[in-house]
Write a structure and sequence with these properties.
mainly alpha
């Protein structure tokens, strides 16, 4: 007798908590297989009932069955159910639901309309569980014995008849199975004609039937999911069901790879459907276009054949241009085109066919198709006409750019930007500019505002191609700022702020700044606030370059002539706002403070002249409204942000000016900050209540301000470190607040719609719901606020250690213990990168504390303490290096910011240890810090693996740039991609170099076996007939640097073996002026070969080298006389002089006896005139010591 009864169902549905809890306890006590059997039995009896009260029970039973079959393949129970029992009950589930979904009694079927979709999900989930139980994996399981594949085959046979009758449920089940069990579906259909027969039957019914039984959008969804299934399995021949199901259902299966089978499906079945689209109702169009967007994103091969893509482009352009359609439908058509353009552009960039991009570009510029014209028209029509309501709304601290009434227009703008970014912009720009000129010259504010906004979008989409139109755009922005309408003014200042990233000529600075400062006196607070942000953009122009995370400041000379005017405008209104009387002005004052900080950051010490005018006001803003407690919650929060901005601005100003000016105020700020820090510390105590003082300023700004003050106060800040560091360590060490709970259908739907985490501002968390094969729906919740706190705390530790240097050493061990686990923190790449950088900074500070002083002698106790400290640092270095090198390969290669941060921290660790070791060489101490030979070999092996991958990636970028006729923006993209890997490459090579220098002769076998084979071929540029090889100058630089190090540090055997090899790269590096660093490394190589290598290596080219080195030095002397000396050239000339002296002058010079007479006298004069050397301490010591010996022996007078 079944334990699942109507009474139990009613208990589970009861509004009474106790009754419902008892029901859940009883239900959960039943074995999962028995629960499914009981639910099925009861469901069958209820379906035949005509009682409407049973509909809710039927829905609950279906939900319970689906939940249990979702986990039945992996659930472990006592007593355990055999797999055969599970397979049997899953087969029964499928048969039962099919009989319910396709009943002989039509009336019965009609009563089930409310849960048919859920029933289809149950059938698909059963197929997935059967597939998981059978361990389904592409190419490894016999189809004849796989219960999941066999079940789907039988099911498709069953569905065939219902497809031919046009039953929409049949195609829905097919769609669900392809989505939930993609591998089993592929194996059951890819080698048979059954799927083709079913789809053909369904398509014919859809095309010929006067009544649309099978909805067109459902057919599109089915094709998309089949396409995803086939693409997953075709591109990954060993795909298993668990991972493939997760990718297909979770919306992560996005690929640009072409799948021929899917292309055939699109050509056969999708193309005829496209012909039906323009004649459909608005409802069908909406749902169908949603499916096409999903198809273009997740199964693009369906649209890849020439005929299909031609049809889809023409169909979408018709929909976009159809002015009688609702604008949301037209925008959906435009979104399909934008999605396809992005895909085809990606294919083109990776060496794919350019035909798609060319075809879509032609359609875009075709006036008959009218895509660009229609898009511009939607932008204009989508603007909210109520500009007064817009102006009356006060500014916010978040973003004033978006206005609810403009949603349609903003969506059209973003799609237009996407299309221009993906397609050939130089061809498109001349087509749209006449339309914009008409808008910009209009007397109607909506048209003018739209034209300015589109101009900004065009610049953002293609900043390089847009350069010729920059003057026109600036003039449009200037004209817009003079408009009487505040919405036009707002958009114009937004355009000018954006164009600052293009770094326009200085001749425009006066016009741009005049517009921005004039708008600061507007009566529209939203406009004033935005003008402040525009001034920030002027000071810190942000190029549209993914490699730039922190915008650099403009040159001070561009701002200094205008500083007084800008500062007067800021002081006159934004900084004089009375936020207590007029709370709406809080954002204005907050952003005014940001401007002050930027001005100081740009002009540096020159800001000292106005320090007295602004600092009292900044200090006053730090306490404005503090402790009043009378405002509304939102107002209190805004005041807290304002106080934080004041503290941030004050400390940035303090860093910019002379320290003597800021020190008195720095002490006042710390007196203000210390009670807040103490209050924050109390929050971590179990017995303490939340401190009200901690709400005075945002904690992240407080901590960052303290770090800035530390950099100014130096040793005086040490008294504040214990309290501050205790707080930072507690924040860093918090356990990650991450939870996994049962998910809901609505949460899963949100994930499928957005493909992203859902943010909850009230709790400071983000969550995502996924359908996990074998586990069901699960909700992952992450406390992102806490993770941000970890990152900020690590960043503050980095700043403190950098500012205090050796004075931070007493805290190094504690910090290292807290930071080390975060290198592998799996929930945030930002935490990993900031923590690794902080650890390197802490380690460097500690190393500084044990470096011997050349002037202060040590007693025995100090020596013992330093030895113990060195041993601790040795351990930290070893653990840190191993942890970082194991973490680096796990990082996303596209996340260049994180990979560089980790690699850079690793090289900083080795550099700090190398600095200590160098200092020890000149003292009697032996407190060296280095890896053991075995550790060094292991880490260098892993570094070389990473270097190989990096070099391959760079070669691919260079090859793309050479092979493709890229437009200017594509060229800029490839150049930025190379730049994004350049610092990473350098950091990895530096780590190898520092390990080499620390291990000296012991490193030679490692160099011979794993370093030289990779870098020796890179020493010289590949010959023209060596196709397939690329000339990567930065790789050549890396190769020369490593061979330089080997010849210098790995002993006489290494110098004998590798000097001749190094010379090949040196000679080629000297002959070109493409890269100063490469030439400098080549010149340095000459010096090293002269000192350490055999004389016969340089002998054939000695005279030519002497002439070339003299020319470099002479050129540098000439530049010095003209007062146009550059730092880079100075270091090059010093290396050249050192190399020249090493060849012919210094003791042991291999050609000292060859170069004689007037030639030698000229070199001696050049040598003496150029001394002293300043750029490289090691070279300076060699040359200065050599000079002393030459003088003492009388070899020069």
């Amino acid at each position: 007798m079944s334990n699942i009864t109507i009474e139990l169902l009613d208990a589970l549905l009861s509004p009474d908590t106790n009754h419902r809890t008892d029901g859940e306890r009883h239900y959960n006590s039943i074995n999962s297989v028995d629960r499914i059997r009981g639910c099925l039995t009861l469901l069958q009896s209820l379906v035949t009932s005509n009682d409407t009260v049973n509909e809710g029970r039927q829905l609950l039973l279906t939900v319970l069955i689906r939940r249990d079959i979702a986990v039945i393949a992996t659930v472990t129970e006592t007593p355990a159910s055999p797999s055969s029992n599970k397979e049997e009950v899953l087969q029964w589930v499928m048969e039962t639901f099919l009989s319910i979904l396709f009943p002989t009694n039509v009336n019965s079927n009609q009563k089930l309309q409310g849960w048919k979709k859920l029933s289809c999900d149950v059938v698909a989930e059963s197929c997935l569980s059967l597939s998981i139980l059978s361990n389904t994996q592409c190419g490894t399981v016999e189809v004849e014995t796989n219960s999941g594949v066999l079940a789907i085959g039988k099911l498709l046979d069953y569905l065939g008849g219902h497809m031919s009758s046009g039953d929409p449920i049949a195609i829905q089940i097919l769609s669900c199975i392809a989505n939930r069990a993609p591998v089993a579906f592929y194996m059951a259909t890819s080698s048979t004609i059954i799927l083709a027969a079913i789809l053909t039957s369904s398509l014919n019914t859809l095309v010929s039937s006067s009544q649309t039984f099978c909805d067109l959008s459902a057919m599109l969804e089915c094709l998309t999911r089949i396409g995803i299934s086939y693409t997953l399995c075709e591109t990954n021949p060993t795909a298993n069901e668990v991972t493939a199901s997760f990718e297909a259902a979770g919306g992560t299966s996005q690929t640009t790879q072409t799948c021929p089978k899917v292309m055939d499906l699109g050509n056969t079945y999708l193309r005829p459907l496209l012909l039906l689209l323009p004649t459909q109702t608005s409802q069908v169009l909406r749902s169908s276009l949603e499916q096409l967007i999903d198809c273009a994103t997740r199964s693009p091969s369906l649209l890849q054949s020439k005929d299909t893509r031609t049809n889809v482009m023409k169909c979408m352009s018709q929909i976009v241009a159809a002015t009688k359609l609702d604008m949301d439908i037209r925008l959906s058509g435009l979104e399909v085109l934008a999605t396809l353009a992005e895909l085809w552009c990606a294919n083109s960039s990776s060496g794919g066919i350019n035909g798609e991009v060319e075809d879509l570009t032609r359609i875009m510029i075709d006036k008959n198709e009218g895509v660009i014209q229609s898009c511009v028209e939607i932008v204009v029509r989508g603007i909210d006409e109520d500009w007064e309501g817009w102006a009356e709304e006060g500014p916010s601290l978040q973003d004033d750019y978006y206005w609810d009434g403009d949603d349609t227009s903003l969506h059209a703008e973003s799609l237009l930007e996407s299309l221009f970014h993906s397609l050939h912009t130089p061809t498109l720009l001349p087509t749209i500019l006449p339309l914009l000129e008409s808008l910009l010259s209009s007397s109607q504010w909506i048209q003018m505002r739209s034209g300015i906004s589109i101009l900004e979008r065009l610049y953002s989409s293609s900043p390089v191609s847009f350069q010729p139109y920059l003057p026109m755009a600036i003039q449009a922005g200037v004209a817009g700022c003079q408009s009487p309408n505040v919405r036009v003014q707002f958009q114009a200042v937004q355009l000018l702020a954006s164009l600052c990233g293009a770094q326009p000529d200085e001749e425009y600075d006066s016009q741009i700044l005049h517009c921005m400062t004039t708008l600061l006196s507007s009566t529209c607070l939203k406009l004033v606030s935005h003008a402040c942000l525009a001034l920030v953009s002027f000071c810190r122009p942000s190029p549209l370059d993914a490699t730039n995370t922190t915008p650099p400041c403009i040159d001070a000379h561009r701002l200094l002539p205008h500083l007084e005017i800008v500062l007067n405008a800021i002081v006159s209104y934004p900084l004089s706002c009375d936020v207590i009387q007029k709370p709406m002005t809080i954002p204005v004052l907050t952003r005014g403070l940001m401007v002050v900080a930027c001005l100081a950051d740009v002009v540096g010490e020159d800001f000292g002249g106005v320090y007295g005018r602004v600092m009292p006001g900044l200090m006053g803003c730090m306490i404005v409204g503090g402790g009043s407690g009378g405002g509304q919650t939102g107002q209190e929060h805004d005041l807290m942000v304002l106080r934080g901005a004041a503290m941030e601005s004050a400390t940035i100003v303090g860093q910019a000016v002379d320290a003597s000016l800021f020190l008195p105020d720095a002490h006042k700020i710390m007196q203000f900050a210390m009670p807040i820090l103490t209050g924050l510390l109390s929050e971590y105590s179990a017995v303490s209540a939340t401190s009200t003082s901690s709400q005075m300023v945002p904690t992240d700004q407080l901590l960052a301000a303290c770090a800035r003050i530390a950099s100014v106060m130096g040793e005086e800040f040490v008294v504040f470190v214990p309290t501050l560091l205790e707080l930072l360590i507690k924040r860093v060490g918090q356990e990650a607040d991450v939870s996994i709970t049962d998910g809901s259908k609505s949460g899963l739907q949100t994930t499928e719609n957005t493909g992203a985490f859902t943010q909850d501002d009230d709790t400071g968390t983000e969550s995502i719901t996924l359908s996990l094969p074998g586990m069901g729906m699960k909700k992952l919740t992450i406390n992102t606020t806490q993770i941000q706190e970890k990152s900020q705390a690590a960043r503050s530790i980095y700043e403190l250690a950098s500012a205090l240097d050796k004075r931070f050493a007493p805290y190094a061990e504690t910090c290292a213990q807290a930071l080390l686990p975060l290198i592998t923190f799996k929930y945030s790449s930002e935490v990993r990168s900031t923590s690794t950088q902080a650890l390197a900074s802490v380690f460097s500070a500690a190393c500084s504390s044990i470096a011997p002083s050349p002037t202060v002698p040590q007693d025995q106790l100090q020596s013992q303490q330093q030895k113990a400290q060195a041993q601790k640092l040795q351990s930290i270095l070893s653990i840190s290096a191993r942890t970082i090198i194991l973490e680096l390969p796990k990082e996303d290669a596209e996340d260049t910011e994180t990979t560089f941060a980790l690699a850079d921290a690793l090289s900083d660790l080795f550099y700090a240890a190398h600095t200590v070791n160098l200092a020890q060489q000149s003292s009697s101490n032996s407190n060296t810090i280095a890896l053991s030979p075995q550790e060094g070999h292991t880490i260098v092996s892993q570094l070389m693996t990473l270097l190989n991958l990096c070099l391959e990636q760079r070669a691919a970028y260079i090859r793309d740039a050479v092979q493709q006729q890229a437009d200017p923006d594509e060229e800029a993209f490839l150049e930025n991609a190379l730049l994004s890997t350049q610092d990473y490459l350098t950091a990895l090579v530096d780590s190898v170099g520092y390990i080499l220098k620390s291990q000296k002769e012991a490193f030679l076998p490692v160099f011979e076996s794993i370093v030289a084979p990779v870098f020796q071929p890179l020493l010289v540029a590949p010959s023209s007939h060596n196709q397939g090889k690329v000339d990567d100058i930065r790789a050549r630089l890396s190769a020369i640097c490593l061979f330089d190090d080997c010849v210098e540090c790995c002993g006489s055997e290494a110098a004998q073996k590798y000097s001749q090899i190094l010379l090949q790269g040196v000679m080629q590096g000297l002959q070109q002026d493409v890269d100063d660093e490469l030439k400098r490394a080549a010149v340095y190589g000459v010096a090293l070969i002269a000192r350490h290598g055999p004389r016969e290596v340089l002998e054939p080219c000695a005279s030519g080298l002497v002439v070339g080195l003299k020319e470099i030095v002479t050129k540098e002397q000439h530049l010095e006389q003209q007062d146009s000396h550059e730092e880079e050239r100075s270091s090059l000339s010093e290396y050249a002089l050192s190399a020249l002296a090493s060849m012919v002058l210094l003791p042991g010079a291999p050609f000292g006896q060859t170069v004689v007479g007037e030639e030698r006298d000229g070199i001696v004069r050049m040598f003496l005139e150029f001394l002293p050397l300043r750029e490289d301490d090691s070279e300076a010591k060699i040359c200065h010591a050599g000079l002393c010996e030459l003088l003492s022996t009388g070899k020069i007078h």
